[in-house]
Amino acid sequence: MSGKFYRDGEWLATRAGSPPDSKARGLSIWSFDTETHRKRPGLIAPPLVCGSIATREPGSERLLDKAQARHFFSNTIADPDVHIVGANLAFDLGVMAADNLRLIEPIREARDNCLDPHRRTPEATATREAWR
Q1: pTM of the model as a whole
Q2: Residue 63: beta bridge partners?
């Protein structure tokens, strides 16, 4: 039960958003973003309002209501063949974890799998570099 993460900064910009051999290996890459209530002092992860998703394909962009964002994320985080990217993914993961405490362990497992130094895939290497 794991997904894979990439920080949507240098790595995606230099590699055009797709890891090597992703199509051959059947991987799917989704950009994921959350919108929340306003931040307040002491509130690290404000309540979820809605989400948005997209792939590299033009026209794939979707705005999700709260229930749809929850459904998409809980299914995606459990799929090892899906990679989640985002501009501020650490915040979005925190929002989703605060929204559903049962997602904390799957999020942790996905993070640990992509940061495992024994994995030698290009995706895992790029992810480890991005998380440093």
Answers
A1: 0.69
A2: 52
Three-state DSSP state, 33: strand
Q: Give the model confidence (pLDDT) of 51-91 as tens digits.
A: 999 998 888 899 999 999 999 999 999 887 888 888 899 99
Q: In what order do the strands lie in the sheet with 48-54?
A: 4-7, 82-86, 28-36, 48-54, 62-65
With contact defined as beta carbons under 8 Å apart, do 127 and 5 qualify?
Answer: yes
> pLDDT tens across 18-29, in order?
333 344 345 688
Backbone angles phi, psi at 91, to 5 degrees: -65, -45
Distances (CA, A) of 47 to 39, 85, 94, 103: 9, 21, 10, 15
Distance separating alpha carbons of residues 21 and 34, to the nearest angstrom: 28
Listed by start position, the domains of the chain span: 4-131
